[in-house]
Amino acid sequence: MSADGPLEGACLCGAVKFTATLPSLVCAHCHCTMCQRSHGAAFVTWFAVNRACFSVDEGAEHLVRHASSDHGSRTFCGRCGSSLFCELDSHPEQVDIVLANMKGPLDRAPQMHIFWSDRAEWMELNDGLPRLGGPTGTEPLD
């Protein structure tokens, strides 16, 4: 794992390229229903960096932002549909980035599962990471 410095990322088609300068703030597996539907998967792994440590380097004209809830938005590539970023009103100083879109190692492994209460029932995970859920999605369950 890298300690700090820039980490490059891109969408599936390569039209959108971006950089996140480490260190990251957090890395978590999210099981909320919006992530499930947005990614077509049981969960998605996000990491966050300070907004000042994030830049879109190419393809900003291809970005589409969707107000996915009354408290946040998701950004995806309008050419290939890759889900890329999430921004929440509760954390305006940070950007959440889909880890799978990065080229290279993050400075930390995933630390927890969030919105565990909303997880896909057909997915079984026994990785020993803390499980958070409840009404806010971030309350300790164990």
Word description of this protein:
The chain is mainly β and 142 residues long. It has one domain (5-140): Metal Binding Protein, Guanine Nucleotide Exchange Factor, Chain A. The chain is 5% helix and 44% strand. It is built from one helix and 13 strands. The protein has one helix spanning 33-39, and strands at residues 5-10, 17-22, 26-30, 44-50, 54-58, 63-69, 72-77, 83-88, 94-98, 102-103, 112-114, 132-133, 139-140. The strands form three sheets. Strands 6-7-8-9-4-3-11 form a seven-stranded mixed sheet, with helices on one face. It has a four-stranded antiparallel sheet with strand order 5-2-1-10, with no helix packed on it. Strand 12 (132-133) and strand 13 (139-140) form a beta hairpin. The longest helix is centred in the N-terminal third of the chain and has 7 residues, at 33-39. It is globular. It starts with a strand and ends with a strand. The model has no long low-confidence stretch (mean pLDDT 94).
